[in-house]
Specification:
TATA-Binding Protein; Transferase(Phosphotransferase), domain 1; five-stranded antiparallel β-sheet; six-stranded antiparallel β-sheet; Phosphorylase Kinase, domain 1; 15 helices; disordered C terminus; alpha+beta; 16 strands; single chain; protein serine/threonine kinase activity
């Protein structure tokens, strides 16, 4: 039986008064993708609609739900010019809706299926692909399903990686240092995945990138057979033929990319230094580390009074604190709930900065947030505050700390102990900050998540 929401989907309509649902552009096992339009601005968006019922019925219950939550968290963390950007997640009784940027150029697969690319065009797309994949790996994200169907093109025909539904996080790596879930698309899967003995997520992505580059240059797959087991045997043995029109430099790179031994397979950093790859490559494409621009305070009208949607809340729960993805103390993200007003939080943070013997200064202040700097530019912190309920606010803290001459850890020694006094005290830990039982029990953040968006 088709429910009311499904009928609205089929004939189009407005979702939550904000997005107009248009033409169906893609369909998968658990989701449909529509072209949409933001009613307020007229801007085109892509809306991925995931059916909760289909997830629970066919997707393995809790595992499928966990995959959706992980995809939300991963996409929210990735901000790169060659990765599709997730702008919002909405939820209804039976659906989860991913609102993403719309890639007007369609799938790269549709372009290459019409004929192979020149080496120059193949190189251009491969450079963009490696830039984005290297960025993902630096954030502890492994895609695990890279293929031309998941590579979209924007209106300027630049690459956009999409579909992180099978992605893994570094925290999923087992004590042996490997991932163990066998997944991916058969023709693009690495031989070590087929061996089912564990694999390095970064090396598996590099293999898939090699298959993609082969397809761009040749116009067909390096490993292909109607019999799946025969194809797997070819992959495992590395049996493929490079087309005769391929230049010597590209031939050498493809051989290193499609090396069946993951230990000797070329790495992202080695790819960037490869002679064929480097032609016309802009080094800035590989530099997407956290910079000051990432710590800018949002405009005042974007904070505080903006109602928090399901995405804001779900990404703030303990399960989605991904600070562990960042190496060292370079960047940390904390989210927690407080019963203090925004005004009081800002005042107290000002007092903290003023009492630090000039180590900390308030660089910018708004009614619903502020930026604090210190240690001669080695420490920076942005605090954003949003109203969660009538009595609670959600505080989002992002901070960057580089090694200072004093050797002092400003976050651990000063800021974090101060924040513990601000945290609301429900019965569990919120975003890594300890809390105590509140017998009145307004509810913990986990309760808010489950009430707002039950998956």
């Amino acid at each position: 039986m088709v429910d009311r929401e499904e009928k609205e989907e089929q004939r189009g309509g407005v979702v939550m008064g904000k997005y107009e649902v248009g033409k169906l552009v893609g369909c998968g096992a658990f989701a449909k993708v529509y072209r949409g339009r933001e009613t307020g601005t007229g801007q085109s968006v892509a809306i991925k609609v995931v059916s909760k019922q289909r997830l629970n019925k066919n997707g393995g219950g809790l595992n499928a739900n966990a995959n959706v939550k992980r995809e939300i968290a991963i996409m929210h963390r990735l901000r790169h010019p060659y990765i599709v950007r997730l702008s919002e997640v909405l939820a209804t009784k039976s659906k989860i809706l991913f609102v993403m940027e719309f890639a007007k150029g369609g799938e790269l697969f549709a372009k290459v299926s019409k004929g192979r690319f020149s080496e120059d065009l193949s190189r251009r797309y491969f450079q963009q692909l490696i830039s984005a994949v290297g960025y993902c790996h630096s954030r502890g994200v492994f895609h695990r399903d890279l293929k031309p169907e998941n590579l979209l093109l924007d209106e300027k025909l630049n690459l956009k990686i999409s579909d992180f539904g099978l992605s893994a996080l570094s925290e999923q790596i087992r004590p042996d240092g490997l991932l163990h879930t066998a997944c991916g698309t058969p023709a693009y899967v690495a031989p070590e995945v087929l061996a089912k003995k564990g694999y390095d997520g970064a090396k598996v992505d590099v293999w898939s990138c090699g298959v993609i580059l082969f397809v761009l240059n040749a116009g067909y797959l390096p490993f292909n057979d109607h019999n799946l087991m025969v194809m797997y045997r070819k992959i495992y043995k590395g049996e493929f033929r490079i087309p005769k029109w391929t230049s010597p430099d590209l031939r050498r790179l493809l051989t290193r990319l499609l090396d069946t031994n993951p230990q000797s397979r070329i790495t992202i950093q080695e790819i960037i230094q490869d002679p064929w790859f480097k032609q016309g490559y802009d080094d800035r494409m590989s530099r997407f580390h956290l910079e000051d621009s990432d710590l800018k305070l949002p405009a005042a009208n974007e904070l505080g009074t903006r109602p928090m949607n399901a995405f804001d809340i779900i990404s703030g729960s303990p399960g989605f604190n991904l600070s562990g993805l960042f190496h060292g103390n370079y960047d940390r993200v904390e989210r927690f709930v407080s019963g203090w007003t925004a005004e009081r939080v800002v005042e107290k943070l000002e007092e903290m900065a003023a009492g630090e013997d000039d180590d900390l200064t308030v660089a910018k202040k708004e009614a619903w947030g502020m930026k604090i700097e210190g240690q001669r530019g080695n420490f920076a912190m942005v605090v954003e505050i949003n109203q969660l309920t009538d009595e609670l606010v959600m505080i989002h803290v992002r901070q960057r700390q580089r090694a200072a001459a004093s050797g002092r850890d400003m976050w651990s020694d000063t800021v974090r102990p101060f924040l513990l006094d601000i945290v609301h005290k429900p019965d569990e830990t919120v975003a890594g900050l300890e809390t105590n039982q509140n017998k009145e029990g307004a509810s913990s953040l986990r309760d808010v998540v489950n009430t707002t968006m039950p998956l």
